[in-house]
Amino acid sequence: MTKEFDVIVIGGGPGGYIAAIRAAQLGKLVACVDEWKNDKGGPALGGTCTNVGCIPSKALLQSSEHYDQALNHFADHGITMSGVKMDLTQMASRKDGVIKQNNEGVLYLFKKNKVSFFHGRGSFVKAVDGKYEIAVSGAQSESLFAKHIIIATGSTARPLAGTPFDEETILSNDGALKIKAVPARLGLIGAGAIGLEMGSVWRRLGSEVTVLEGLPTFLGPVDEQIAKEAHKIFLKQGLKIELGVKVGEISKSKKGVSVSYTTAAGQTQSAVFDKLIISIGRLPNTVGLNTQAVGLQLDERGFVVVDADCKTQLPNVWAIGDVVRGPMLAHKAEEEGVAVAERIAGQHGHVNFNTIPWVIYTSPEIAWVGQTEQQLKASGRAYKAGTFPFLANGRARAMGDTTGMVKFLADAVTDEILGVHIIGPLAGELIAESVVAMEFKASAEDIARICHAHPTLSEATKEAALAVDKRTLNF
Ligand code: FAD
Ligand code: NAI
Predict the structure, then answer these.
(1) CATH class of the domain at 355-468
(2) How many Å lie between the centroid of ligand 2 and the Cα of residue 64?
(3) Which of 61, 186, 252, 349 is an S-S bond match for 339, by CB 3.0 to 4.6 Å?
(4) Rg from Cα positions in the chain
(5) Is the CB of residue 287 less than 8 Å from the CB of residue 298?
C-alpha cells in the first residue's frame, strides 16, 4: 500500500515521537515508523529511553532507594522495622508497569495529534520527484512517501571487542535492567552514567559491586571538585571503583564470568563476577536504514553527519538525538526534534547546546549545566567560583541528607553565570533554576538577589551564588 505524508519520522524514541507530535501540531501530515516490540510482539513506543533506559533505570533506582532508606536510615527518624525484605519480582513488575504506561502514553499522544504510526523497520528505498520512499517491514509491509524525513533511530550499547552480550551473564543496559536475583558479585566495566546508576541499584540491594574504569580520572566530564566529592562518597557507600584499568580477557565459566585486567600500577589482576555489565558508551543505529540507497553521509563511527541545525547533506533529510553528534540524552533528542519540526514548518527552531543540563541519578544526585572549572581554565576565561555545602542548609538537615554542595562559576568581570554544578539531594530538580538563569544570561548576583523559599534546598543555590561574591549568609 502506498501512503503520502509531509514528514516521515523513523524512530519513536524521545527524539522521534516528540518531533512527530510537534510537526503534527504545526499542521503537517506526519507518519512515525518504529520497530521496538514489547514481550508480546506489539509496539512499544518511547525507544531506548522508555524501554531500556531512562525510565526503567529510574524506577529501579527509586525502589532500591526506598529499600536502602528502610534498612539503613528510617531508624534515624525513630522508625524501627524488622524483617525488611526486597521482593525483586514485585520490583521488576512495578518497573514493567511504568514502562507500559509510558508506551501507551506515546500511542495516545499519537492518536491525539493525528500522527500515523507504523510498527516495523523503516528503511530508505529511493529519492524520487523531490520525495523519499521509505519501506516499512514489519507485521505489514508498507511503502511511504514524504518530502521530509527525520531520522531518529537512536543508539544501542557498545560491546567490548570479542565479548558479545549474552544478556545472561554479560549484560548491556538491556539485561542489566532485567536481572532477576541479587548477584552476590557484580562487575561493571565503565564508570559512566550507566555504570554508576546500575551499580547504585545493585549495591543497595546487597551486591558487592566492582566498577572497572579505563580512564585514570573519575567522571572526567564532570567538574573536577564535584567528581572528587562523588568519588569519595561512592567509595564510602561501598562501591569498589578501580580507575585506569586495561581490561583483558573475559571468559565465562560455571563460577560466573572472569575478567582479567591490568591495574593503573601495572599489576595483572583477575576478578570473578556473577554478572558483568558492560557500559562503555553506545553506538548509533544506522545499520537497518539502507542509507546507501540514497547516499546519506555517515561518519567513520556510523553517526549520521549533520550540521548545527540537524540537516544532513541530503535535501530535506534531517537527523536528531543519539544517532547524531552531541550528548546522548533524552532531553537533547527532544529539543532537536522540536527544533527540526519547526524548521520544516518554516519557523526558526533553536537548541542552545550550552544550556543542556546533565543529571546522574545516583544518591546523592549529580547535576550540572554549562562549563566546568577545568574547561574554563583550559579556555583561559577569567572566572570567580562560589560553593555552598548542603551541611549548612536547613532543609537538608531536616531531611537528614546533607551530603554535597552547590557550586557556581561566573565571569570574573561581568558576573554572568558560566556553569553550575551540584552534588546533593534532588540535584536533578535543583539544576532547573540554573538552566533558566543561564538561558536568560543571568549574573550570579541575579540569583543571589532572588527570594528563595525557606526552608528549601534551593536556598543552597542562592547561597552558592552569594559565595561567588564571598558573602554567604549561612556559612
Ligand atoms: P532512542 O530512544 O534510542 O529511540 C530510537 C528508536 O528508533 C527505537 O525505538 C528504535 O527501536 C527505533 N529504530 C531504530 N532503527 C529503526 C528503523 N530502521 N526503523 C524503525 N525504527 C527504528 N538520558 C537522559 O536524558 N536521562 C536519563 O536518565 C537517561 N538514562 C539512561 C539510562 C540507560 C540505561 C540508557 C541506556 C540510556 C539513558 N539515557 C538517559 C539516554 C537516552 O535513553 C537516550 O539519549 C535517548 O533515548 C535517545 O533518544 P532517541 O530518540 O535519539 O533514540
Ligand atoms: P558513558 O559514556 O557515560 O561512560 C562510559 C565509561 O566507560 C567512560 O567513563 C569511559 O571512559 C569508560 N570506558 C570506555 N571504554 C572502556 C574500556 N574499554 N574499559 C573500561 N572503561 C571504558 O557511557 P554509558 O555509561 O555506557 O552510557 C551511555 C550513554 O547513555 C551516556 O553517554 C549517557 O549520555 C546516557 N545515559 C545517561 C544517563 C543520565 O542522563 N542519567 C544515565 C545513563 C545513560
Answers:
(1) alpha beta
(2) 21
(3) 349
(4) 24
(5) no
